[in-house]
Q: What sequence folds into this?
């Protein structure tokens, strides 16, 4: 038995899986209510895409009604109990971000999947699959939850066309700003690749940024670039909203399932692929219209 599991048996607070299991049991043993609506997503201020992909940011009726999906594994017992209480008392809007088919969030998503039958109103708003298995890259991915077990469904993956609702971050007014292109190529690293010193050194001759800065800086970098090379989903998406040419370096399945495909490459091969990078027009307007239409359905369903 692994040391972590041994210690978790003796001291459950040490094992995050044990902590999460205790919270799940608490919630499933509690009567479910729909007093208000809470938006659950990965509320990570150190990842710009994750931080801005939540519906509560764009609708006054949801303002500040947010819960971090990782709260289920907090060390503090009271913090976990508060998280469970918030989930049990409110209708849930789950998303956006890559919450599906990722082990880190699997237990939470399986929990949310069970709540509809207990009387909970549940909405999926813009989550998507995020499987790291390279064998699934470019293939249709089956979700690790059953969409029928949620009250209302909108996912960012276009292979589920009847439920397609692209990331709600398109509603941010920053995408209405004009930008002047000052650089031919911009490389925008994801969180992990931004910490890869060897990669950073190899590409230091190019203008670079990453998704751990802030929204204004990240979008301005995209806006002033003609072509974006990135392993960040939201850099890819926001580049498309701004009509940029996009080359994507995939790290999970999420890069293969947007309506408008980026050209798939790698940080070793992108220079030879620059002329293959596609760009699209009208994406911003389309994504906004779909989200506004879906919002009306959500607010009607939740009686907001």
A:
């Amino acid at each position: 038995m692994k040391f972590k599991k041994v210690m978790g048996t003796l001291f459950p607070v040490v094992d995050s899986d044990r902590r999460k299991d205790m919270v799940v049991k608490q919630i499933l043993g509690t009567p479910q209510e729909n007093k208000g609506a809470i938006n659950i997503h990965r509320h990570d201020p150190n990842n710009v895409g994750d931080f801005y992909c939540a519906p509560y940011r764009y609708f006054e009726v949801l303002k500040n009604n947010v819960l971090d999906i990782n709260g289920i594994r907090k060390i503090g017992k009271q913090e976990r109990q508060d998280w469970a209480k918030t989930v049990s008392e409110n209708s849930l809007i789950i998303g956006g971000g890559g919450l599906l088919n990722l082990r880190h969030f699997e237990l939470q998503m399986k929990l949310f999947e069970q709540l509809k039958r207990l009387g909970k109103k549940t909405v999926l708003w813009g989550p998507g699959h995020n499987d790291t298995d390279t064998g699934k890259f470019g293939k249709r991915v089956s979700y690790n939850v059953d969409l029928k077990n949620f009250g209302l469904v909108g996912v960012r993956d276009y292979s589920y066309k009847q439920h397609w609702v692209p990331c709600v971050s398109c509603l941010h007014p920053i995408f209405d700003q004009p930008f002047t292109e000052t650089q031919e190529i911009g490389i925008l690293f994801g969180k992990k690749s931004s910490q890869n010193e060897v990669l950073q050194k190899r590409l230091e001759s190019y203008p670079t940024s990453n998704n751990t800065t802030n929204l204004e800086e990240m979008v301005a970098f995209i806006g002033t670039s003609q072509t974006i090379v990135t392993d960040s989903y939201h850099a890819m998406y926001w580049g498309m909203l701004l009509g940029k040419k996009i080359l994507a370096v995939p790290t999970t399945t999420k890069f293969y399932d947007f309506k408008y495909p980026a050209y798939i490459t790698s940080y070793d091969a992108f220079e030879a692929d620059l002329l293959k990078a596609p760009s699209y027009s009208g994406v911003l307007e389309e994504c906004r219209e779909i989200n506004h239409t879906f919002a009306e359905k959500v607010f009607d369903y939740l009686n907001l």
